[in-house]
Amino acid sequence: MPNNKASGPSKISYEMLKHLSGEALDFFLLLANPRLSRGDIPADWREAVVYPIPKLHDFNAQLKNT
Length: 66
Prior knowledge:
The chain is mainly α and 66 residues long. The chain has one domain (14-65). Helices cover 33% and strands 0% of the residues. The mean pLDDT is 84. This is Reverse transcriptase.
């Protein structure tokens, strides 16, 4: 994932995860992987925060204007 992206409701950014120690990352994966493989994803993990970002031009169905 690219750096400097907004974190979700957890406020855990990609940069934080990227700097985990090997032991901490292993523990995180131990918690997350079984849930993901079973499709048992907690509702809180499905939440997102969307912020509208004003654009300089009207969209006019042109991707170059996004």
